[in-house]
Amino acid sequence: MRRRQVLPFQSHIPLSVNSIHYQFDTDGNAIDLTSAKIDHLGGTYVWYGLPFGCGQAFCGITSYSSSDLQTWHFNGFLFDPNDTVIQTLCSAPLSGNCGRPHIVYSKQNNNYVLWVNQASPGYLLFTSNNPTSGYTMLQDRALVGFQPPGPFQAGDFSVQIINGTGYLAYSLIDFTTTGASIWPPFNQSIYFQELTPTMLNTTGSVSHVVSAALDLVDFEAESPDIFQRGDYFYISASNTCGFCTGTLLIIYRSKSIAGPWKRQIISADTCGGQSTGVLSLPSPSGGPTSYLHIADLVNSAPLSGTRNAAHGHQLQLLSFNHDGTINDLNCSPTQTFTVSLRPGSNVSSTGLVTTATDTSGELASWTPTCNLPTSQLYQTWASSKTGTLSEVGVNVAGDTPTGNLTITIFRYQSNRNFFTPHYIWETLTTVNIPPSSISQAFAVIRVPVGKAVTEGDRLGFALVSLSVTPMCVLIKTSKDVMVNMETGTRTLFANGAGQVSLRGRDGTKPPVNVMAGQEIKWYAIVV
Protein backbone atom coordinates (compact mmCIF):
# COMPACT_ATOMS: atom_id res chain seq x y z
CA MET A 1 0.00 0.00 0.00
CA ARG A 2 1.45 3.35 -1.03
CA ARG A 3 1.48 6.07 1.61
CA ARG A 4 -1.04 8.83 0.94
CA GLN A 5 0.12 12.35 1.63
CA VAL A 6 -2.34 15.08 2.63
CA LEU A 7 -0.70 18.49 2.40
CA PRO A 8 -1.62 21.72 4.19
CA PHE A 9 -3.99 24.20 2.57
CA GLN A 10 -1.38 26.76 1.62
CA SER A 11 2.10 26.31 0.17
CA HIS A 12 4.74 28.38 -1.58
CA ILE A 13 6.67 26.00 -3.80
CA PRO A 14 9.80 26.94 -5.79
CA LEU A 15 9.83 25.31 -9.21
CA SER A 16 13.42 25.07 -10.44
CA VAL A 17 13.91 24.79 -14.18
CA ASN A 18 17.02 23.18 -15.66
CA SER A 19 18.70 23.32 -19.04
CA ILE A 20 16.99 20.33 -20.62
CA HIS A 21 13.90 20.25 -18.42
CA TYR A 22 13.45 16.55 -17.81
CA GLN A 23 10.92 15.61 -15.13
CA PHE A 24 10.58 12.15 -13.60
CA ASP A 25 8.00 10.05 -11.82
CA THR A 26 8.48 8.54 -8.37
CA ASP A 27 9.90 5.36 -9.95
CA GLY A 28 12.59 7.34 -11.77
CA ASN A 29 11.14 7.15 -15.29
CA ALA A 30 11.28 10.29 -17.41
CA ILE A 31 7.81 11.77 -17.97
CA ASP A 32 6.78 10.28 -21.33
CA LEU A 33 4.12 12.71 -22.53
CA THR A 34 3.65 14.66 -25.75
CA SER A 35 0.86 17.15 -26.53
CA ALA A 36 0.02 16.93 -22.85
CA LYS A 37 -1.92 19.20 -20.50
CA ILE A 38 -1.72 19.83 -16.76
CA ASP A 39 -5.10 20.43 -15.11
CA HIS A 40 -6.39 20.53 -11.55
CA LEU A 41 -8.72 17.51 -11.48
CA GLY A 42 -10.19 15.58 -8.58
CA GLY A 43 -8.40 17.69 -6.00
CA THR A 44 -4.90 17.38 -7.42
CA TYR A 45 -2.71 18.21 -10.43
CA VAL A 46 -2.95 15.75 -13.32
CA TRP A 47 -0.53 15.76 -16.25
CA TYR A 48 -1.96 13.70 -19.11
CA GLY A 49 -1.21 13.17 -22.78
CA LEU A 50 0.31 10.85 -25.36
CA PRO A 51 3.24 8.56 -24.49
CA PHE A 52 5.40 7.67 -27.47
CA GLY A 53 7.85 5.31 -25.76
CA CYS A 54 6.36 2.32 -27.60
CA GLY A 55 7.54 3.78 -30.90
CA GLN A 56 4.10 3.77 -32.56
CA ALA A 57 1.79 6.56 -33.73
CA PHE A 58 -0.57 5.68 -30.87
CA CYS A 59 0.59 4.12 -27.60
CA GLY A 60 -2.41 5.18 -25.49
CA ILE A 61 -3.16 8.11 -23.19
CA THR A 62 -1.50 8.10 -19.77
CA SER A 63 -1.43 10.40 -16.77
CA TYR A 64 0.64 11.41 -13.76
CA SER A 65 -0.56 13.06 -10.53
CA SER A 66 1.27 15.52 -8.29
CA SER A 67 0.51 17.53 -5.18
CA ASP A 68 3.21 20.13 -5.90
CA LEU A 69 4.03 20.06 -9.66
CA GLN A 70 7.43 18.54 -8.82
CA THR A 71 6.88 14.97 -7.58
CA TRP A 72 4.87 12.99 -10.14
CA HIS A 73 3.18 9.63 -9.54
CA PHE A 74 2.40 7.50 -12.62
CA ASN A 75 -1.29 6.55 -12.84
CA GLY A 76 -1.29 4.39 -15.97
CA PHE A 77 -3.64 4.44 -18.96
CA LEU A 78 -6.91 6.36 -19.08
CA PHE A 79 -8.39 3.45 -21.07
CA ASP A 80 -7.11 0.22 -22.64
CA PRO A 81 -5.08 1.26 -25.70
CA ASN A 82 -4.98 -2.33 -27.01
CA ASP A 83 -8.74 -2.58 -27.42
CA THR A 84 -9.41 -3.49 -31.07
CA VAL A 85 -11.87 -0.66 -31.63
CA ILE A 86 -9.54 1.87 -29.99
CA GLN A 87 -6.58 0.71 -32.07
CA THR A 88 -8.60 1.03 -35.27
CA LEU A 89 -9.78 4.53 -34.42
CA CYS A 90 -6.57 5.94 -32.94
CA SER A 91 -3.95 4.38 -35.24
CA ALA A 92 -5.50 5.24 -38.60
CA PRO A 93 -3.48 7.61 -40.84
CA LEU A 94 -4.62 11.25 -40.75
CA SER A 95 -7.01 10.39 -37.91
CA GLY A 96 -5.42 12.70 -35.35
CA ASN A 97 -4.31 9.56 -33.47
CA CYS A 98 -6.54 10.49 -30.50
CA GLY A 99 -4.16 13.36 -29.88
CA ARG A 100 -4.30 16.57 -27.82
CA PRO A 101 -6.50 14.92 -25.14
CA HIS A 102 -8.36 17.27 -22.79
CA ILE A 103 -10.43 16.50 -19.70
CA VAL A 104 -13.20 18.59 -18.15
CA TYR A 105 -15.50 17.89 -15.23
CA SER A 106 -19.23 17.81 -15.96
CA LYS A 107 -20.99 19.12 -12.88
CA GLN A 108 -24.36 18.29 -14.43
CA ASN A 109 -23.50 14.59 -14.91
CA ASN A 110 -21.00 14.36 -12.03
CA ASN A 111 -18.33 12.76 -14.20
CA TYR A 112 -15.21 13.56 -16.20
CA VAL A 113 -15.34 14.01 -19.97
CA LEU A 114 -12.30 13.20 -22.12
CA TRP A 115 -12.14 14.81 -25.57
CA VAL A 116 -9.66 13.49 -28.17
CA ASN A 117 -8.83 14.41 -31.75
CA GLN A 118 -10.02 11.51 -33.92
CA ALA A 119 -11.02 12.15 -37.53
CA SER A 120 -14.39 13.73 -38.38
CA PRO A 121 -16.88 15.03 -37.55
CA GLY A 122 -15.86 16.95 -34.43
CA TYR A 123 -14.23 15.04 -31.60
CA LEU A 124 -14.39 11.60 -29.98
CA LEU A 125 -15.59 11.50 -26.35
CA PHE A 126 -15.02 9.29 -23.31
CA THR A 127 -16.43 9.55 -19.79
CA SER A 128 -15.35 8.26 -16.37
CA ASN A 129 -16.08 8.76 -12.69
CA ASN A 130 -12.31 8.96 -12.10
CA PRO A 131 -10.13 11.66 -13.71
CA THR A 132 -7.20 9.29 -14.33
CA SER A 133 -8.70 5.89 -15.27
CA GLY A 134 -11.74 3.91 -16.34
CA TYR A 135 -12.79 5.95 -19.36
CA THR A 136 -15.38 4.42 -21.72
CA MET A 137 -16.00 5.63 -25.26
CA LEU A 138 -19.30 7.27 -26.18
CA GLN A 139 -21.08 6.61 -29.46
CA ASP A 140 -22.13 10.24 -29.91
CA ARG A 141 -19.42 12.65 -30.92
CA ALA A 142 -19.00 16.30 -30.01
CA LEU A 143 -19.68 18.42 -33.08
CA VAL A 144 -18.24 21.84 -33.83
CA GLY A 145 -20.13 24.91 -34.95
CA PHE A 146 -18.13 25.49 -38.11
CA GLN A 147 -16.80 22.61 -40.21
CA PRO A 148 -17.70 22.98 -43.90
CA PRO A 149 -18.29 19.87 -46.02
CA GLY A 150 -15.37 18.56 -47.96
CA PRO A 151 -11.70 18.40 -46.95
CA PHE A 152 -12.02 20.27 -43.67
CA GLN A 153 -11.21 18.60 -40.36
CA ALA A 154 -11.20 19.78 -36.76
CA GLY A 155 -7.63 19.38 -35.52
CA ASP A 156 -5.75 20.48 -32.39
CA PHE A 157 -8.07 21.81 -29.70
CA SER A 158 -8.65 22.59 -26.04
CA VAL A 159 -11.67 22.44 -23.74
CA GLN A 160 -11.72 24.46 -20.54
CA ILE A 161 -14.21 25.58 -17.88
CA ILE A 162 -14.19 29.27 -16.94
CA ASN A 163 -16.56 30.55 -14.26
CA GLY A 164 -18.71 27.44 -14.63
CA THR A 165 -19.05 27.63 -18.42
CA GLY A 166 -17.24 25.26 -20.78
CA TYR A 167 -15.45 26.48 -23.89
CA LEU A 168 -13.85 24.86 -26.92
CA ALA A 169 -11.02 26.32 -29.01
CA TYR A 170 -10.19 24.27 -32.10
CA SER A 171 -8.08 24.52 -35.21
CA LEU A 172 -9.96 23.89 -38.44
CA ILE A 173 -7.63 22.29 -41.00
CA ASP A 174 -8.19 23.18 -44.65
CA PHE A 175 -6.89 20.24 -46.65
CA THR A 176 -7.75 21.91 -49.97
CA THR A 177 -4.29 23.47 -49.82
CA THR A 178 -2.48 20.15 -49.27
CA GLY A 179 0.33 19.63 -51.74
CA ALA A 180 0.01 23.12 -53.18
CA SER A 181 3.46 24.17 -52.02
CA ILE A 182 6.60 23.01 -50.25
CA TRP A 183 5.30 24.71 -47.14
CA PRO A 184 3.00 25.08 -45.39
CA PRO A 185 1.37 21.66 -45.90
CA PHE A 186 -2.10 23.13 -45.33
CA ASN A 187 -3.83 26.13 -43.79
CA GLN A 188 -5.61 26.13 -40.43
CA SER A 189 -7.02 28.71 -38.05
CA ILE A 190 -8.72 28.73 -34.67
CA TYR A 191 -12.41 28.89 -33.80
CA PHE A 192 -13.92 29.45 -30.35
CA GLN A 193 -17.29 28.17 -29.08
CA GLU A 194 -19.22 27.55 -25.86
CA LEU A 195 -19.98 24.03 -24.58
CA THR A 196 -23.28 22.63 -23.38
CA PRO A 197 -23.69 22.23 -19.58
CA THR A 198 -23.00 18.49 -19.92
CA MET A 199 -19.59 19.30 -21.51
CA LEU A 200 -20.48 16.76 -24.22
CA ASN A 201 -21.12 19.10 -27.14
CA THR A 202 -20.90 22.66 -28.43
CA THR A 203 -23.64 25.27 -28.47
CA GLY A 204 -24.21 28.79 -29.73
CA SER A 205 -22.33 30.89 -32.21
CA VAL A 206 -18.72 30.45 -33.30
CA SER A 207 -15.97 33.07 -33.10
CA HIS A 208 -13.14 33.04 -35.63
CA VAL A 209 -9.94 33.74 -33.69
CA VAL A 210 -7.84 35.83 -36.06
CA SER A 211 -6.10 39.15 -35.68
CA ALA A 212 -6.48 42.31 -37.71
CA ALA A 213 -3.46 41.19 -39.74
CA LEU A 214 -5.30 38.19 -41.27
CA ASP A 215 -1.89 36.84 -42.29
CA LEU A 216 -0.28 33.41 -42.49
CA VAL A 217 0.46 33.46 -38.75
CA ASP A 218 -3.31 33.47 -38.15
CA PHE A 219 -3.88 30.80 -40.79
CA GLU A 220 -1.20 28.42 -39.49
CA ALA A 221 -2.41 28.47 -35.86
CA GLU A 222 -2.75 25.20 -33.93
CA SER A 223 -2.36 23.65 -30.43
CA PRO A 224 -4.72 26.17 -28.78
CA ASP A 225 -5.48 26.44 -25.08
CA ILE A 226 -7.89 28.70 -23.18
CA PHE A 227 -7.59 30.72 -19.98
CA GLN A 228 -9.00 33.93 -18.52
CA ARG A 229 -7.25 36.71 -16.63
CA GLY A 230 -9.11 39.82 -15.53
CA ASP A 231 -11.36 41.09 -18.30
CA TYR A 232 -9.61 39.11 -21.02
CA PHE A 233 -10.12 35.69 -22.57
CA TYR A 234 -6.77 34.35 -23.77
CA ILE A 235 -5.96 31.66 -26.32
CA SER A 236 -2.39 30.42 -26.47
CA ALA A 237 -1.35 28.72 -29.71
CA SER A 238 1.56 27.79 -31.93
CA ASN A 239 2.07 27.75 -35.66
CA THR A 240 1.84 24.51 -37.63
CA CYS A 241 4.53 22.22 -36.29
CA GLY A 242 4.52 18.43 -36.64
CA PHE A 243 6.36 17.70 -33.37
CA CYS A 244 9.10 20.02 -34.64
CA THR A 245 12.03 21.59 -32.81
CA GLY A 246 10.52 25.03 -32.40
CA THR A 247 7.66 27.22 -33.59
CA LEU A 248 6.00 30.53 -32.75
CA LEU A 249 4.22 30.98 -29.42
CA ILE A 250 1.13 33.07 -30.15
CA ILE A 251 -1.21 34.72 -27.65
CA TYR A 252 -4.66 35.95 -28.68
CA ARG A 253 -6.74 38.02 -26.26
CA SER A 254 -10.21 39.54 -26.31
CA LYS A 255 -12.72 40.86 -23.78
CA SER A 256 -15.45 38.89 -25.55
CA ILE A 257 -15.52 35.38 -26.96
CA ALA A 258 -16.96 36.97 -30.10
CA GLY A 259 -13.81 39.08 -30.58
CA PRO A 260 -12.21 41.14 -31.91
CA TRP A 261 -8.93 39.39 -31.05
CA LYS A 262 -5.55 41.02 -30.53
CA ARG A 263 -2.45 38.96 -31.21
CA GLN A 264 1.06 38.77 -29.77
CA ILE A 265 4.02 36.59 -30.63
CA ILE A 266 5.88 36.03 -27.35
CA SER A 267 8.51 33.57 -28.56
CA ALA A 268 10.15 32.95 -31.91
CA ASP A 269 10.55 29.22 -31.28
CA THR A 270 8.91 28.44 -27.88
CA CYS A 271 12.43 27.83 -26.54
CA GLY A 272 12.90 24.95 -28.99
CA GLY A 273 9.50 23.32 -28.79
CA GLN A 274 5.75 23.69 -29.07
CA SER A 275 3.12 24.98 -26.68
CA THR A 276 0.82 22.43 -25.03
CA GLY A 277 -1.19 24.71 -22.76
CA VAL A 278 -1.47 27.04 -19.78
CA LEU A 279 -2.29 26.00 -16.20
CA SER A 280 -4.14 28.57 -14.08
CA LEU A 281 -3.00 28.51 -10.44
CA PRO A 282 -5.29 30.46 -8.09
CA SER A 283 -3.42 31.89 -5.12
CA PRO A 284 -3.98 29.94 -1.88
CA SER A 285 -3.97 33.22 0.04
CA GLY A 286 -6.45 35.12 -2.14
CA GLY A 287 -3.80 36.91 -4.18
CA PRO A 288 -3.56 37.08 -7.96
CA THR A 289 -3.74 33.89 -10.02
CA SER A 290 -0.51 32.61 -11.58
CA TYR A 291 -0.38 31.21 -15.10
CA LEU A 292 2.06 28.43 -15.94
CA HIS A 293 2.89 27.80 -19.59
CA ILE A 294 3.81 24.22 -20.56
CA ALA A 295 5.66 23.19 -23.72
CA ASP A 296 7.15 20.09 -25.32
CA LEU A 297 10.86 20.84 -25.75
CA VAL A 298 11.31 18.70 -28.84
CA ASN A 299 14.78 20.08 -29.56
CA SER A 300 16.03 18.37 -26.39
CA ALA A 301 15.32 14.92 -27.89
CA PRO A 302 18.51 13.09 -28.84
CA LEU A 303 16.74 10.60 -31.10
CA SER A 304 15.12 11.26 -34.47
CA GLY A 305 11.49 10.88 -35.43
CA THR A 306 8.40 13.09 -35.58
CA ARG A 307 6.83 11.41 -32.55
CA ASN A 308 9.77 11.44 -30.20
CA ALA A 309 9.39 10.26 -26.62
CA ALA A 310 12.84 11.30 -25.43
CA HIS A 311 12.20 15.04 -25.21
CA GLY A 312 11.89 17.17 -22.09
CA HIS A 313 9.33 19.79 -21.11
CA GLN A 314 9.39 23.40 -20.06
CA LEU A 315 7.20 24.90 -17.34
CA GLN A 316 7.42 28.69 -17.22
CA LEU A 317 5.51 31.36 -15.31
CA LEU A 318 3.89 33.90 -17.64
CA SER A 319 4.51 37.58 -16.87
CA PHE A 320 1.73 40.11 -17.63
CA ASN A 321 1.73 43.85 -18.21
CA HIS A 322 -0.96 46.28 -17.00
CA ASP A 323 -2.61 46.39 -20.43
CA GLY A 324 -3.05 42.61 -20.54
CA THR A 325 -0.13 41.92 -22.86
CA ILE A 326 2.29 39.14 -21.95
CA ASN A 327 6.07 39.46 -21.81
CA ASP A 328 8.27 37.25 -23.97
CA LEU A 329 9.22 33.77 -22.80
CA ASN A 330 12.58 33.49 -21.08
CA CYS A 331 14.54 30.75 -22.83
CA SER A 332 17.59 30.99 -20.57
CA PRO A 333 18.65 27.50 -19.45
CA THR A 334 19.27 28.79 -15.91
CA GLN A 335 15.93 30.53 -15.34
CA THR A 336 14.05 29.71 -12.14
CA PHE A 337 10.82 30.92 -10.60
CA THR A 338 8.68 30.49 -7.52
CA VAL A 339 4.92 30.10 -7.60
CA SER A 340 2.32 29.92 -4.84
CA LEU A 341 -0.25 27.17 -5.24
CA ARG A 342 -2.79 25.14 -3.35
CA PRO A 343 -1.27 21.66 -2.90
CA GLY A 344 -3.12 18.65 -4.23
CA SER A 345 -4.23 15.81 -1.99
CA ASN A 346 -4.32 12.01 -2.03
CA VAL A 347 -1.23 11.61 -4.19
CA SER A 348 1.44 9.02 -3.48
CA SER A 349 4.84 10.61 -3.00
CA THR A 350 6.78 7.35 -2.70
CA GLY A 351 8.27 5.10 -5.35
CA LEU A 352 11.38 3.17 -6.30
CA VAL A 353 13.53 6.29 -6.54
CA THR A 354 12.12 8.19 -3.58
CA THR A 355 12.86 5.20 -1.31
CA ALA A 356 16.11 4.09 -3.00
CA THR A 357 19.20 3.56 -0.85
CA ASP A 358 21.63 5.22 -3.24
CA THR A 359 20.78 7.37 -6.23
CA SER A 360 22.18 9.95 -8.63
CA GLY A 361 19.29 12.25 -7.68
CA GLU A 362 16.34 13.55 -9.69
CA LEU A 363 16.53 17.37 -9.68
CA ALA A 364 19.54 18.14 -11.85
CA SER A 365 20.48 19.45 -15.28
CA TRP A 366 20.20 16.15 -17.11
CA THR A 367 21.62 15.98 -20.63
CA PRO A 368 20.83 13.11 -23.02
CA THR A 369 24.01 11.46 -24.26
CA CYS A 370 23.89 8.83 -27.01
CA ASN A 371 27.34 7.27 -26.65
CA LEU A 372 26.15 3.67 -26.81
CA PRO A 373 27.31 1.59 -28.73
CA THR A 374 30.34 3.75 -29.60
CA SER A 375 31.47 3.48 -25.98
CA GLN A 376 31.13 1.09 -23.07
CA LEU A 377 30.13 2.86 -19.87
CA TYR A 378 30.95 2.02 -16.25
CA GLN A 379 29.15 3.96 -13.50
CA THR A 380 30.39 3.41 -9.93
CA TRP A 381 29.23 4.24 -6.41
CA ALA A 382 29.80 3.14 -2.81
CA SER A 383 26.98 1.36 -1.02
CA SER A 384 25.70 3.38 1.93
CA LYS A 385 24.06 0.37 3.57
CA THR A 386 24.74 -3.24 4.52
CA GLY A 387 22.16 -5.74 3.32
CA THR A 388 20.93 -7.30 0.09
CA LEU A 389 21.30 -5.30 -3.11
CA SER A 390 17.84 -6.06 -4.47
CA GLU A 391 17.94 -4.07 -7.71
CA VAL A 392 19.66 -1.38 -9.75
CA GLY A 393 17.83 0.90 -12.17
CA VAL A 394 19.21 3.04 -15.00
CA ASN A 395 17.43 5.36 -17.48
CA VAL A 396 17.97 4.31 -21.11
CA ALA A 397 16.33 5.30 -24.40
CA GLY A 398 16.76 3.69 -27.80
CA ASP A 399 15.31 4.18 -31.27
CA THR A 400 14.49 0.69 -32.60
CA PRO A 401 17.75 -0.94 -31.38
CA THR A 402 19.15 -3.75 -33.49
CA GLY A 403 20.82 -5.65 -30.65
CA ASN A 404 20.75 -6.33 -26.93
CA LEU A 405 21.89 -4.02 -24.17
CA THR A 406 24.03 -5.95 -21.68
CA ILE A 407 24.01 -4.63 -18.11
CA THR A 408 26.44 -6.06 -15.56
CA ILE A 409 26.35 -5.20 -11.86
CA PHE A 410 29.75 -5.68 -10.24
CA ARG A 411 31.90 -5.13 -7.13
CA TYR A 412 35.48 -3.88 -7.35
CA GLN A 413 38.29 -2.72 -5.04
CA SER A 414 39.78 0.49 -6.40
CA ASN A 415 39.38 3.06 -9.17
CA ARG A 416 42.80 1.98 -10.38
CA ASN A 417 41.29 -1.39 -11.29
CA PHE A 418 39.88 0.21 -14.43
CA PHE A 419 43.39 1.00 -15.66
CA THR A 420 44.94 -2.35 -14.68
CA PRO A 421 45.36 -5.00 -17.43
CA HIS A 422 43.61 -8.35 -16.80
CA TYR A 423 41.71 -7.09 -13.75
CA ILE A 424 38.53 -9.14 -13.15
CA TRP A 425 35.75 -7.63 -11.07
CA GLU A 426 33.29 -9.65 -9.00
CA THR A 427 30.15 -10.04 -11.09
CA LEU A 428 26.98 -9.79 -9.04
CA THR A 429 24.63 -10.27 -12.02
CA THR A 430 24.45 -9.84 -15.79
CA VAL A 431 21.29 -9.34 -17.84
CA ASN A 432 20.69 -8.98 -21.57
CA ILE A 433 17.93 -6.50 -22.38
CA PRO A 434 16.35 -7.24 -25.79
CA PRO A 435 15.40 -4.38 -28.14
CA SER A 436 11.69 -4.95 -27.45
CA SER A 437 12.26 -4.02 -23.79
CA ILE A 438 14.00 -0.70 -24.51
CA SER A 439 11.71 2.33 -24.59
CA GLN A 440 12.11 5.31 -26.87
CA ALA A 441 11.56 7.38 -23.73
CA PHE A 442 14.10 7.53 -20.89
CA ALA A 443 12.37 4.75 -18.96
CA VAL A 444 14.14 2.94 -16.13
CA ILE A 445 15.54 -0.50 -16.91
CA ARG A 446 15.30 -2.46 -13.66
CA VAL A 447 18.01 -5.06 -13.01
CA PRO A 448 17.28 -7.55 -10.19
CA VAL A 449 20.44 -8.47 -8.24
CA GLY A 450 19.74 -10.23 -4.90
CA LYS A 451 23.34 -10.28 -3.61
CA ALA A 452 24.76 -9.30 -0.20
CA VAL A 453 26.69 -6.02 0.03
CA THR A 454 28.38 -4.20 2.88
CA GLU A 455 28.35 -0.50 3.61
CA GLY A 456 31.29 1.06 1.81
CA ASP A 457 31.48 -1.62 -0.90
CA ARG A 458 32.55 -0.19 -4.24
CA LEU A 459 29.85 -1.16 -6.73
CA GLY A 460 29.19 -0.36 -10.35
CA PHE A 461 27.22 -1.20 -13.46
CA ALA A 462 28.52 -1.67 -16.99
CA LEU A 463 26.49 -0.79 -20.09
CA VAL A 464 27.48 -2.52 -23.34
CA SER A 465 25.29 -2.18 -26.44
CA LEU A 466 25.30 -4.60 -29.35
CA SER A 467 22.99 -2.37 -31.36
CA VAL A 468 24.01 -0.58 -34.55
CA THR A 469 21.61 2.28 -33.80
CA PRO A 470 22.25 4.60 -30.86
CA MET A 471 21.15 4.12 -27.28
CA CYS A 472 21.13 7.03 -24.87
CA VAL A 473 21.52 7.68 -21.15
CA LEU A 474 20.98 10.82 -19.09
CA ILE A 475 24.12 12.52 -17.79
CA LYS A 476 24.60 15.28 -15.22
CA THR A 477 27.80 17.22 -14.65
CA SER A 478 28.60 18.29 -11.10
CA LYS A 479 31.59 19.23 -9.02
CA ASP A 480 30.31 16.72 -6.47
CA VAL A 481 31.27 13.83 -8.76
CA MET A 482 34.71 15.06 -9.79
CA VAL A 483 36.99 12.04 -9.58
CA ASN A 484 39.69 11.51 -7.00
CA MET A 485 41.61 8.43 -8.03
CA GLU A 486 42.07 7.22 -4.46
CA THR A 487 38.89 8.29 -2.69
CA GLY A 488 36.30 8.96 -5.42
CA THR A 489 33.31 6.61 -5.50
CA ARG A 490 30.86 8.34 -7.85
CA THR A 491 32.87 7.97 -11.05
CA LEU A 492 31.91 7.39 -14.66
CA PHE A 493 34.42 5.51 -16.78
CA ALA A 494 34.21 4.87 -20.54
CA ASN A 495 36.16 3.15 -23.25
CA GLY A 496 35.50 2.99 -26.96
CA ALA A 497 33.93 -0.13 -28.40
CA GLY A 498 36.66 -2.60 -29.25
CA GLN A 499 39.36 -0.49 -27.56
CA VAL A 500 40.93 -3.20 -25.42
CA SER A 501 44.65 -2.52 -25.60
CA LEU A 502 47.20 0.14 -24.61
CA ARG A 503 47.23 3.36 -26.56
CA GLY A 504 49.37 6.48 -26.92
CA ARG A 505 52.65 7.26 -28.63
CA ASP A 506 54.66 5.50 -25.94
CA GLY A 507 52.20 2.59 -25.63
CA THR A 508 51.37 3.19 -21.95
CA LYS A 509 47.91 4.80 -22.03
CA PRO A 510 45.04 2.54 -20.91
CA PRO A 511 41.96 2.49 -23.18
CA VAL A 512 39.61 3.46 -20.31
CA ASN A 513 38.93 7.16 -19.71
CA VAL A 514 37.51 9.02 -16.73
CA MET A 515 34.45 11.15 -17.58
CA ALA A 516 35.35 13.72 -14.95
CA GLY A 517 32.42 15.31 -13.17
CA GLN A 518 29.82 13.23 -15.04
CA GLU A 519 27.28 10.77 -13.66
CA ILE A 520 24.60 8.62 -15.29
CA LYS A 521 21.06 8.77 -13.88
CA TRP A 522 20.58 5.60 -11.77
CA TYR A 523 19.42 4.22 -8.42
CA ALA A 524 20.17 1.21 -6.22
CA ILE A 525 18.03 -0.41 -3.52
CA VAL A 526 19.55 -2.29 -0.56
CA VAL A 527 17.17 -4.05 1.82
Automatic annotation (TrEMBL):
GO terms for biological process: carbohydrate metabolic process. InterPro entries: Glyco_hydro_43, Glyco_hydro_beta-prop_sf. Belongs to the glycosyl hydrolase 43 family. Gene3D superfamilies: Glycosyl hydrolase domain, family 43 (2.115.10.20). It comes from Hyaloscypha bicolor E. The keyword Hydrolase applies. Keywords: Glycosidase, Hydrolase. The keyword Iron does not apply. One of its GO terms (molecular function) is hydrolase activity, hydrolyzing O-glycosyl compounds. This is Glycoside hydrolase family 43 protein. Transmembrane segments: none annotated. PANTHER family: GLYCOSYL HYDROLASE 43 FAMILY MEMBER, GLYCOSYL HYDROLASE FAMILY PROTEIN 43.
